[in-house]
Design goal:
Blueprint lengths: L7 E3 L16 H12 L8 H7 L4 H13 L3 E9 L5 E9 L6 H9 L14 H12 L7 H16 L4 H9 L9 H11 L12 E5 L6 E2 L10 H4 L13 H22 L3
Parallel strand pairs: 1-3
Antiparallel strand pairs: 2-3, 2-4, 4-5
Helix pairs in contact: 1-3, 2-3, 5-6, 6-8
């Protein structure tokens, strides 16, 4: 697995896995694609790591990944993650799609115009689990199953407004009276009175793709098939102009100073 926040990220709205998913690819690329498809999100899919797991060298894997990118299964780039404090940071991403996508789909995904998959609902909600755990940590806040079900929507509203489990737990357990006569009533009052304000409307994720060959960042329309124009040979890569040597710079500076000195002498009053 890669470091938290990095590694493979599955693209949304994919068809169910089937035996013919990668039949359109050459055998090597099809085998690598099937392996990548089975890896969980967060898995390290860098060339170096894959070479330790698959019977291919790093050069062959690099070529295969580029072909998977050209076929529409893979895109690499960066995604901006905004924090609640107003700052943000850029995270390197490798987006994987079992379903081959064209450039227009990846461009829409980069803009945030493709809806994200909704996770399957768990047997018990995140809010219900938090409330049920309160009694194990703080016996005076033990709740019945009916109490948890009744209070869970209030806790869910806290989560909707950006609160974490730690924030909710602190709001419910800090400064408790002794004794607690009616835990459900006390928690309902706290969940209502301390409800955080609504957060600002979230912005769609900002993503930037990178060229599969040289790694240059660019807009999706500048990277058809995940490759920039320079790597496709459509125009020569611009080279930085050669800087003049130090003696040439010093000589030119002396010329400028001498010209300025002559001008001051000509303009000086007689």
């Amino acid at each position: 697995m890669a470091n938290p926040g990095y590694g493979k990220r599955s693209a949304p709205d994919q068809r169910p896995r089937a035996a013919h998913d990668f039949a359109h690819l050459p055998p090597r690329e099809a085998a690598i694609a099937a392996y990548l498809d089975r890896l969980p999100d967060g898995a390290d899919i860098s060339v170096k790591t894959l070479a330790k797991q698959l019977p291919y060298g790093q050069c062959a894997l690099g070529t295969a990944l580029n072909r998977l990118q050209q076929a529409g299964h893979l895109r690499r780039g960066r995604e901006r993650l905004d924090s609640t404090s107003g700052g943000h940071r850029w995270i390197t991403r490798s987006w994987w799609s079992r379903t081959a996508r064209d450039d227009d789909w990846w461009a829409a995904f980069t803009r945030g115009d493709v809806p994200e998959d909704a996770p399957p609902p768990p047997t018990r909600s995140r809010a219900h689990i938090l409330l049920a755990a309160l009694g194990r940590e703080t016996p005076s806040l033990s709740l019945s199953a009916a109490d948890c079900a009744a209070l869970a929507p209030l806790v869910t509203e806290w989560f909707t407004r950006g609160a974490t489990e730690e924030v909710v737990h602190h709001a419910l357990t800090s400064g408790l009276p002794t004794p607690v006569h009616h835990p459900a009533a006390l928690l309902r009052r706290r969940l209502t009175d301390k409800l955080p304000p609504e957060p600002p409307l979230p912005q769609p994720p900002r993503r930037i793709l990178e060229c599969a060959k040289c790694g240059v960042l660019g807009r999706p329309e500048a990277l058809p098939g995940g490759v920039c124009k320079g790597c496709r040979g459509e125009h020569p890569t611009a080279r930085p102009a050669t800087l003049p040597s130090a003696p040439v710079v010093h000589a030119r500076a002396n010329e400028i100073r001498a010209a300025m000195s002559r001008k001051r002498e000509e303009e000086a009053p007689v």
